[in-house]
Amino acid sequence: MMFSQIRSYDNYIVANLQLNLLKDHGISCYLQDEHTITIDPLLSPAIGGMKLMVVDNDMEKASELLDSVEDDYLKTVACPVCHHTSLEKITHVDHPTGFWPKLKNRLIGGSPASFKTYYHCTSCDQTFSSLPV
Ligand SMILES: [Zn+2]
Question: How far is the CA of 88 from the centre of ligand 1 (A)?
């Protein structure tokens, strides 16, 4: 079975909640680097966080499941600028073609592609690199 990264996390609790959500729906998955980061959280940025790995055959089902949970949660978070609950998550996936960029991404993030996520308010057009608290 081949596994691929679907998400990465700095937070142990969120990582395990989403891991168990997928397992409850019968999806084969595991957290890579969970123990390393639990022992030394300062290593998290260096190795790309805890990586949620999903079996390739279930990738689409897992992605839809995680997206729907995140969308439901986003509907409850207010924009810190305009206070509307109109945030959306935007993920850019970069698939480099060169050997060295792919190697760099694999070493840092465990996947040849790199992922960048940010949040956009559709009401006031502001963007945030992390979810506002
Ligand atoms: Zn806003």
Answer: 10
